[in-house]
Design goal:
Low-confidence stretches: none
CATH topology of the largest domain: Helicase, Ruva Protein, domain 3
Catalytic activity: 2'-deoxyribonucleotide-(2'-deoxyribose 5'-phosphate)-2'-deoxyribonucleotide-DNA = a 3'-end 2'-deoxyribonucleotide-(2,3-dehydro-2,3-deoxyribose 5'-phosphate)-DNA + a 5'-end 5'-phospho-2'-deoxyribonucleoside-DNA + H(+)
CATH class of the largest domain: Mainly Alpha
CATH architecture of the largest domain: Orthogonal Bundle
Pfam family, one: H2TH
Enzyme class: lyase
GO molecular function, one term: zinc ion binding
EC number: 4.2.99.18
Shape: globular
Number of domains: 2
Helix content: 25-40%
Length: about 270
């Protein structure tokens, strides 16, 4: 599932292509036909991301909500658009560009009350300027569940996925099983600062790099990481490989059905 930085990149891209423009909307697949009919002829005021949710705000009072889930994907380009082949949920276009959406877990129109209900269910998004880290800490601190699970809980932190969570815990020297009640203000400051900085950098670059400059391949004289997720990381999907700091083999476990990764020495 795409992490929050990807959704923020999509919001920026959609603003670049369609903001302030009257759009035409279709649903070649048919599953969003009623919504597309309502959208067509309206103007996109702006797009924004909140956690892993993309919101398009239109001038006729409804908001397009998209959650990509595990299989959703956007593509776009300059007109003319390609033939609508396959399971194409929605196509948006103006006089110059097209945007296609395939396989989302949610593609729906929300009124003001429904949008508020959605946002009220979400936690704090580190990439948003209105984020309140004190509120997120208060939610974490009162829970005895493991931090590895709490930081992935979208009702606490919106947008952070497994890569960012595992890497921020490593950088803070905290084991994924550390209970939320044991998190100190200092530890939270480290985690929050890393979430903000690392996710913001990923918005710019389009990849997730979490290692400090002294641990990058060129600084250490090592080969770059080869992985379909890309980016240089300390622990994520590095089970059995040596820690970049101390050389201890990275461990892997499971927490609430999700893989976890940590260094037994650096995160003891």
């Amino acid at each position: 599932m795409p992490e929050g930085h990807t959704i923020h990149r999509l919001a920026a891209r959609h603003n670049e292509l369609l903001r302030g423009e009257v759009v035409n909307a279709t649903s070649p697949q048919g599953r969003f036909s009623a919504g597309a009919a309502l959208l067509s002829g309206s103007k996109l005021e702006f797009a924004e991301a909140y956690g892993k949710h993309l919101l398009h705000h239109y001038d006729f009072g409804l908001t397009l909500h998209v959650h990509l889930g595990l299989y959703g994907k956007f593509s776009d380009g300059a007109l003319p658009a390609p033939p609508p082949i396959g399971e194409l949920r929605m196509r948006l276009s103006n006089d110059h560009h097209w945007i296609d959406l395939r396989g989302p877990s949610a593609c729906e129109l929300l009124d003001g009350a429904s949008e508020k209900a959605l946002l009220d269910r979400l936690g704090i998004d580190p990439l948003r300027p209105d984020a309140d880290p004190k509120l997120a800490f208060a939610r974490l601190k009162k829970r005895a569940a493991p931090l590895g699970a709490l930081l992935l809980d979208q009702s606490i932190i919106a947008g952070a996925g497994l890569i960012f969570v595992m890497e921020c815990l490593y950088r803070a020297g905290l084991h994924p099983s550390t209970p939320g009640t044991a998190l100190t203000p200092k530890g939270w400051k480290q985690i929050w600062g890393d979430l903000v900085a690392l996710m913001a950098a990923a918005v710019v670059s389009g990849r997730i790099d979490t290692v400090r400059p002294k641990h990058m391949p060129e600084a250490m004289g090592r080969a770059p990481r080869v992985d379909r997720h890309g980016g240089e990381v300390y622990v994520y999907r590095r089970a059995g490989q040596p820690c970049l700091v101390c050389g201890t083999p990275i461990a892997r476990g499971e927490l609430n059905g999700r893989n976890t990764y940590w260094c037994p020495a650096c995160q003891s």
